[in-house]
Amino acid sequence: KKLNELYKDYISTGEKALKKSDLAAARIAYEQALIIRQNDADATGKLKVIAEKEKQENAKAELESNYTTAIADADKLFKAGDYDAAKSAYEKAAGFRNDKWPQEQLKKITKLEADLLAKQKADEQKRLKETDAATRKAKQEADYNDAIKTADKLFAKKDYANATVAYNKALGIEKNTWPANQLKAIAKIQDQEEAKRKKSIAK
C-alpha cells in the first residue's frame, strides 16, 4: 500500500512538472514510478512524450544557436564591407529562422551593390572621357607642331605663299601668337617686295 501511494505521488509530480514544461523534473518522477512498477504503461508513455519534447527543444535550441552564430558572422562581414560573404551568411541565417533582420540586411546589400556598380560604371565612363580628351589634345598638339615646323622651314626658304598656307593650318588647329605674328611678318615682307617691284618698274 505504501509503495502504491509512493507510485501515485511520483505520477502526480510527473504530471505537474510536465504541465510546467519542467522536463527534467518530470523525467525523474516518471523514472521513479517505473522503479516501483516496472513496465508501467502510464509512466513509460509519459517518458516517451518527454523524450520527444526534449528532442524538439534540443533541435529548437540548436537552430537558435545556429541562427545567432550566422547573424553574428553576417553582421561582422557587413560592417567590414565584405558584402558577398555577408549575403551568404544572412541567407544561411534566414534558413534557420524566418526573421526580419536578415531579410532587411539582404535588401540593404542589394541596394549597396547596385549603388557600387553604378558608381564604378560612372567612374569608368569618366576615365574613358578623360583618356579620349587627353588623346585628342595630344594629337592636336602633334598636328600643330608639325604644321609650325613645316611653316618655319618654308619661311626660312622664303617660300612665303606655302608658308602662309602652313601657318594658317597651324592657326586652325590652335590659336597661338607665333603663327599669327609670322603671317603678319609675311604680309609685311610681301608688301615691301611689292613696293620694290613697283619702284623698279617705275624706273
Verbal overview:
The chain has 203 residues and is mainly alpha-helical. It is built from seven helices and no strands. It has helices at residues 2-19, 23-36, 41-79, 83-96, 100-156, 160-173, 177-202.
Structural descriptors:
single chain; 203 residues; mainly alpha; 7 helices; rod-shaped
Short characterization:
With 203 residues, the chain is mainly α. The chain has seven helices and no strands. Helix content is 90%, strand content 0%.
Describe the secondary structure blueprint for this structure.
Blueprint (H helix, E strand, L loop, with lengths): L1 H18 L3 H14 L4 H39 L3 H14 L3 H57 L3 H14 L3 H26 L1
- Taking the alpha carbons of the first and last residues, their distance comes to 165 Å
Q: What fraction strand?
A: under 5%
Order of helices and strands: HHHHHHH
Range of helix content: over 70%
Number of helices: 7
Overall, the morphology is rod-shaped
Give me the count of strands: 0
Q: Could you tell me the mean pLDDT?
A: 91
Largest sheet: none
Low-confidence runs: none
Rg, alpha carbons: 48 Å
- Category by helix and strand content: mainly alpha
